[in-house]
Amino acid sequence: MKQIHTRKCSANCFLWNQTVGIFSARGNAYRCYRYVGNEEYKLGNINEDNFSLFNNRLRKPVVRKCSECWAQLFCGDGCPYENYLYEDDINKPNQQWCAKTKILLEESFRLYVQILINKPGLFKDMFDSQTK
Ligand code: SF4
Q: CB 3.0-4.6 Å disulfide test: which of 34, 52, 88, 128 passes with 81?
């Protein structure tokens, strides 16, 4: 509901963010904490001479299913790790994620409007600080 109220849409996930580094205790670097231990997504190790977080840039493709989806602005194209787990493809949205996201969004929209119409005092208490 906070996202709806502030109209702050979802930022893309860590995996596509070129400035994020997640490190294991042994110094292995990854873009996303969910890939820690996965050799395929290891960026390198901080003990390597030529290690740089900015090597190994992953480019996010346009996912047609997401670009045609009403929930895209809030969902942000889903989670590549969930896609990897369930579809074996980081760019293929999986049905469980899509169903969960849409149910959460629909219920959030409903609750947001119910509070706005029926409980204006509560709405003010909940969201006034969000817009200042
Ligand atoms: S709900 Fe599914 S199809 Fe829609 S933007 Fe999210 S991942 Fe993509």
A: 34
Q: Which residue has the tokens 């889903």?
A: 78
**First and final CA of the chain: distance in angstroms?**
16
Q: How far is CA 36 from the centre of its chain?
A: 17
With beta carbons less than 8 A apart as the criterion, state whether 4 and 112 touch: yes
**How many angstroms separate the CA atoms of 89 and 78, rounded?**
12
* Residue pLDDT, tens place only, 70-108: 999 889 899 999 999 999 999 999 999 999 999 999 999
In short, whether 105's Cβ falls inside 6 Å of ligand 1 is: no
Cα 108 off chain centre by? 17
Joined together, the tokens standing for residue 9 give 């849409």
Q: Which amino acid is at 35?
A: Y
- 98 Cβ inside 6 Å of ligand 1: yes
- Does ligand 1 come within 6 angstroms of the Cβ of 28? no
pTM over 0.90: no
Q: Which atom of ligand 1 is nearest to the CA of 69?
A: 4
Encoded tokens for 131? 């817009």
